[in-house]
Design goal:
This protein has four helices and seven strands. With 142 residues, it is α+β, with helices and mostly antiparallel strands. The protein has a seven-stranded antiparallel β-sheet with strand order 2-1-7-6-5-3-4, with helices on both faces. 23% of the residues lie in helices and 32% in strands.
Length: 142
């Protein structure tokens, strides 16, 4: 018997259902429009960022963090964040670990999982990013 690879059929999730889903996650999650303007974020995202970015504001694009750094301490411009790359390349950009610096200077480690959102015709309508806080894990390691 030949095994068949399962390929899920793309489905459109209505905005209210998407927001409800993201609000119920225990992880930070947010959405952006195709230009990278933040259109939604949940409570865990605001807690991780240490701030409440303005929605649909060009001053807060691609990510709501005050500052992002690579694991080696190199600064990552928001234009090079996982969300920006997912939107620019219209492809999932997942698993990158970053340090998120809050306005008070506190830093947290998180794994970013950004994915573009396409409509039925394949047009880019935005992106979603889920940030999994791995700070406690990193502290336990070392």
């Amino acid at each position: 018997m030949e095994s068949q690879k399962y390929t899920p059929e793309p489905r459109t999730v209505p905005q209210p259902q998407l927001r409800h889903l993201l609000e119920s996650l225990p992880a930070a999650a947010y959405t952006c429009d195709p230009q990278g303007l933040i259109t939604y974020y949940n409570g865990p995202a605001a807690s991780l960022w240490g701030r409440n970015p303005r929605l649909n504001d060009p001053g807060d694009r691609f990510c709501g963090s005050f500052r992002m750094l690579a694991s080696d301490g190199t600064s990552i411009p928001h234009e090079e964040s996982s969300m920006a790359l997912a939107l620019r390349h219209r492809a999932e950009h997942a698993g990158e670990e970053v340090l998120i610096e809050r306005p008070d200077g506190e830093r947290s480690a998180a794994r970013a999982h950004a994915k573009p959102i396409l409509d039925e015709s394949g047009e880019l309508v935005g992106g979603v990013n889920v940030l999994v806080d791995v700070t406690d894990l990193r502290r336990a390691e070392g």
